[in-house]
Amino acid sequence: MTKMKKTSQICQSKLPDNTALKQQQLPAYRLQLSATGVLSGFFATGAFCLGVGIILILSAKSIKEIEIKYTKICANCAELREDAINFDKECTCSIPFYLSETMQGNVYLYYKLYGFYQNLYRYILSRSNSQLVGTDLKDVGNCAPFSKSHNGTPIAPCGAIANSIFNDTIILSYNLNSSIHMEVPMLRSGITWWTDKYVKFRNPSAINLSSAFTGTAKPPYWSKPVYELDLEDTENNGFLNDDFIVWMRTAAFPTFKKLYRRLNRVQYFIEGLPAGNYSFNITYNFPVTRFKGEKSVVLSTLTWSGGSSLFLGLAYTVTGAVTWLAAFSMMAIHLMLKEKRTLFIERFETERDRA
Amino acid sequence: MDCSLVRTLVHRYCAGEENCVDSRTIYVGHREPPPGAEAYIPQRHPDNRIVSSKYTFWNFIPKNLFEQFRRIANFYFLIIFLVQLIIDTPTSPVTSGLPLFFVITVTAIKQGYEDWLRHKADNAMNQCPVHFIQHGKLVRKQSRKLRVGDIVMVKEDETFPCDLIFLSSSRGDGTCHVTTASLDGESSHKTHYAVQDTKGFHTEEDIDGLHATIECEQPQPDLYKFVGRINVYSDRNDPVVRPLGSENLLLRGATLKNTEKIFGVAIYTGMETKMALNYQSKSQKRSAVEKSMNVFLIVYLCILVSKALINTVLKYVWQSEPFRDEPWYNHKTESERQRNLFLRAFTDFLAFMVLFNYIIPVSMYVTVEMQKFLGSYFITWDEDMFDEDTGEGPLVNTSDLNEELGQVEYVFTDKTGTLTENNMEFKECCIEGHVYVPHAVCNGQVLPDASGIDMIDSSPGAGAREREELFFRALCLCHTIQVKDDDDVDGPRKSPDSGKSCVYISSSPDEVALVEGIQRLGFTYLRLKENYMEILNRENGVERFELLEILSFDSVRRRMSVIVRSATGEIYLFCKGADSSIFPRVIEGKVDQIRSRVERNAVEGLRTLCVAYKRLIPEEYEGVCTLLQAAKVALQDREKKLAEAYEQIEKDLILLGATAVEDRLSADMQDHGLIIDGAALSLIMKPREDGSCGNYRELFLEICRNCSAVLCCRMAPLQKAQIVKLIKLSKEHPITLAIGDGANDVSMILEAHVGIGVIGKEGRQAARNSDYAIPKFKHLKKMLLVHGHLYYIRISELVQYFFYKNVCFIFPQFLYQFFCGFSQQTLYDTAYLTLYNISFTSLPILLYSLMEQHVSIDTLRRDPSLYRDIAKNALLRWRVFIYWTFLGVFDALVFFFGAYFMFENTTVTSNGQIFGNWTFGTLVFTVMVFTVTLKLALDTHYWTWINHFVIWGSLLFYVVFSLLWGGIIWPFLSYQRMYFVFIQMLSSGPAWLVIILLITVSLLPDVLKKVLCRQLWPSATEKVQTENQCLSVEQSTVFMLSQTSSSLSF
């Protein structure tokens, strides 16, 4: 008896709630891809892409860029660096070139490497962040095989990335005439991410840098210890060295360029780099022929849309054109079908009338 | 020598086994039989412990883990996880371990909880006290200590602790009432009979003095079959042998009703009880979607392996030049140098596998499970499928088959009670060719007036009056109805017009309708009291008939008989049954007139029965008795012998007349015709009578395929299942659905791809064995056309989208290997790898797969032709699958090479600074998350606030997460490679331009394809979507369904 009553109560409570959610009747907007909607969408997208594309192409046109590959030009230096024994022999190389047009505005100096895999899995891993923020110089856990020197002292900065730092020095000189060669003033600041320079890379705290790094060894391929990278500017010494920080941000592809210097716009260079004769004076240290690579220097101006490539502008233009093409063909199909349909309906109606 | 010895041992053992199989012998109350009796082989029986639980406390963890990892997917993910743990890979084991751990834990907790409940139920059952007799005293013991041979006492409303032979009852007539609701769902009271020779033992002492043995068959699962015999020894006489049938057997799980107490002897205990033997779990059904999902998985597994192989081979080709294998800037460690080449290649292969393993995501399984589980609630919540009369809503017994509801091609339905509502109404009877119609129900008014007989034909002659009364008496006596005086019987069928509160209960609604109809014609069946059936005749006088034998109904004979002795001492045999089984056995009566009437009624769709009788002289009755007794005592082939005996007795009958009962069709029958429309669906009808299906399978299939509706008459339950199987296994492998309401439909429900039970009047057994249960047949329409269609659309998009988004995810990773010297460097940060499937792109698709309605529910219901659009697994065909995969590959190419050319050719920033590899990966990832989410947004037709919230919320979450992830130095990370990467990227104008461009380019082709297909080759669904007109759809063919006649019958 009681059981029966219970079950009947359960039965009553089984009546479903009449909520919109449970009845799948929530108020909703029905997205319909109607012909007019899609067509106008396509035309709008096409117009936008074409517009952006043209603007990008125009702005990319104003950019000046020159790239000089210097592996072959400095063939004797390259040959010298083939053999690691000659690491302490200095080799310089001068590359004259002529700038036919003025490079207006900010000019950036890059070095570019071909065939250097900064994105190898073991290579990317081979660094110690706790060392680089200055908290624990002895932490060389991931740095193998460049974690400790032969006598067992930890390397600072350890790891394959730091060890293989790009160590050419590139000096650009402006040849006003055949006798006056002046060094183009370059800025080292602002070539790194702000967060790298001020958060991710910190020197260990000590009275002076060299004492902070006692008990560590320099990386095997380095000619001088990390605390002697820039003896003039303490803000550029040790782990805070701008070139070092730039190098430590590993590139995505085997061909990559990295920012080296930017033009200090003073005196002659207030407008940019004037047209004329220049030469790069390069201290050639970094071996690339050993991995069949190449290196080059790049001088470039920039606009709001970045560097010189037409890629982005062209891509936008092509996308816009294809979209419009698709839209037109869709419109044609739509109109044709519409005509057919009305014809069909008319025929149907006349037949009905006849009947 | 030894060999022969062994052989004889084996033989003996086998022989012993055979003996065991035959029968078992039980000493009632463990009393040995007198020494003169036959010696029996003692047998061992299990105790009365029921074990339904799967695990114990100790073996839970290993056994559960073992069972879970037997699933291919889980095993695959475990392997990946272990590989990640062992070898040096760029992906952290957490990325695959965490989701796997989550899935395994949740499943284990769920299964553990269910098993704990089972343990609890088992314990409660095994420890519940049972009264039994020991040395003439009543003793209480735990149920599990019960043994075969114990004498048990059961009180009212208690359930029987094991299978018992009914010895005696507190009722004087040695009967008891039982409900078997928990066994087969039949809630009606059934009468069981005590053994004749022991029904006098009413007290504990009496019963203890009983000296008997029982022989019976070994336990078998059939609830309704039991064969045995009892030998009662009294003093020095020869033992009395009595037959035991299922009417003497009280089953474990049944409940004693309306009887103070009974005594019984345990014959089957514990796991040998018929209830336990019926515990067999249903075989798992798999939906077509799941099958194609598994095929796609295998395809992706092949893709994965080939990707890993290609990369491994290329790696070693690329590294064959020493300056690449070990350039000066990336020296190997000593241990790396010394490793064996093949070992190295193998680890590289594994590492690539691990790197690309996300292409088969764990999260897809989780999402599909969640979608099915949560989605099935929409069925149970559906108001339209709620029946207010019974207070029942639809039930979902398995959520695995939701989408299969959208794929049904053939519907098999039981007619009686499913299409009709089992509301039987007595229409007319025909006695000697004269037609009588009970007047009482005209105009919907029920008149309890006995004189309301309308004679359609000419009035009967005076001699016919006697025949007429005999006919009514025959109908009043020839049945197995019980009468309940009580108002509170469950599962009642109240006689609508009886002034007294008397309720007829029967397993067959026809009988009730007949007896009620006869009541209106002046004869009322009162009760069965001490083997005397009492009826009230027209003069309000009580007539008593002694019930001598019941030749019960079975579906082979299709008739039943009773033998009664009237007050004047005359012995009658009344027989009632289907026309075809009565006419051949008739020797007298107006056969032709009655036959024509019966046929007319049958054509009108009425259920007809014929009634005949025969008078037996006492000598004949003696013969009948011995014949029946001999058959009943037989231990072997009792069924067959009984059937032969019945055959001999039921002959030379005199035909009295025929009855017609109307089984009313459900109110909305016309609507159902819509589902049964056209070439896509066929409907096979089955009334509940038996018959032969014929062996012309091919012919049958041929006809079935060419007919929109096929009617199969007179089918046995097993034949129903056979027809389902026949269609199921035919060449096209169509998806079948079986729907029924009675126990006789269970086999068909279990056989079909989707089984639907109607929670009807014939008990709940069909509903319990079904995959889905609905209160009324009319609800099937919404179930298929709306729910099935929507679930199918949803899950197919879910499956395809999951593969698509993981192709987008992993293909750039694959491409990147070509640019990083095949060194297994990851493109994305670990956090992105882990969270891509878990949080950035999971919720939109889950909610889509729960909410999407590509066309409105009303349209779906109104236009059944839309159902054909998705037939034959249309959205998961190879063409569609390949399209999605190629779309994924195309998008991945766009992301990767778009970003690549950008990085390669230009400075991405406007301040000259340079981005590294992590920025590149983040750029690709950002484009990907947006594209993949917007692709889903374009596919969503039904935008509720939830969709808006989830889609835009996911994108926002991605942005906020990336800002946070890169905005803080996380102290628990040993690397800070993502620090400010995302913010730096967003601070550069060109990056924005690239992101916008790449998203547009990857979305355009899909939109274009969609619009073009819609314009050129629109499907029915798309036409409805675009036109959106409310043209009323023409009603399709409506099938009239009747019991005996239609287009085709087998």
UniProtKB/TrEMBL annotation, chain A:
One Pfam entry name: CDC50
Name of the protein described by the UniProt record: Cell cycle control protein
Organism from which the protein derives: Felis catus (Cat)
Protein localization: Membrane
Listed transmembrane segments: 38-60, 321-337
Record bears the keyword Membrane: yes
Family statement drawn from the similarity comment of this UniProt entry: Belongs to the CDC50/LEM3 family.
Primary site of residence: membrane
Keywords, in A-Z order: Glycoprotein, Membrane, Transmembrane, Transmembrane helix
Family annotation (InterPro entries): CDC50/LEM3_fam
Keyword Glycoprotein: yes
Automatic annotation (TrEMBL), chain B:
InterPro entries linked: ATPase_P-typ_cyto_dom_N (IPR023299), ATPase_P-typ_P_site (IPR018303), ATPase_P-typ_TM_dom_sf (IPR023298), ATPase_P-typ_transduc_dom_A_sf (IPR008250), ATPase_P-type_domA (IPR059000), HAD-like_sf (IPR036412), HAD_sf (IPR023214), P-type_ATPase_IV (IPR006539)
Gene3D superfamilies the UniProt entry points to: Calcium-transporting ATPase, cytoplasmic domain N, Calcium-transporting ATPase, cytoplasmic transduction domain A, HAD superfamily/HAD-like
Membrane topology per record: Multi-pass membrane protein
Main enzyme class: translocase
Catalytic activity: ATP + H2O + phospholipidSide 1 = ADP + phosphate + phospholipidSide 2
Cofactor section: Mg(2+)
Limits of the P-type ATPase A domain: 127-191
UniProt-annotated location(s): Endomembrane system; Membrane
Keyword terms of this UniProt record: ATP-binding, Magnesium, Membrane, Metal-binding, Nucleotide-binding, Translocase, Transmembrane, Transmembrane helix
Gene responsible for this protein: ATP11A
UniProt organism field: Felis catus
Kinase listed as a keyword: no
Pfam families, per database record: Cation_ATPase, E1-E2_ATPase, PhoLip_ATPase_C, PhoLip_ATPase_N
P-type ATPase C-terminal domain boundaries: 767-1019
Annotated protein name in UniProt: Phospholipid-transporting ATPase
Record-stated family: Belongs to the cation transport ATPase (P-type) (TC 3.A.3) family. Type IV subfamily.
EC assignment: 7.6.2.1
Membrane spanning residue stretches: 69-87, 295-318, 349-368, 881-903, 915-937, 949-973, 979-1004
Every P-type ATPase N-terminal domain range: 42-96
Keyword Membrane belongs to the record: yes
Domain of life: Eukaryota
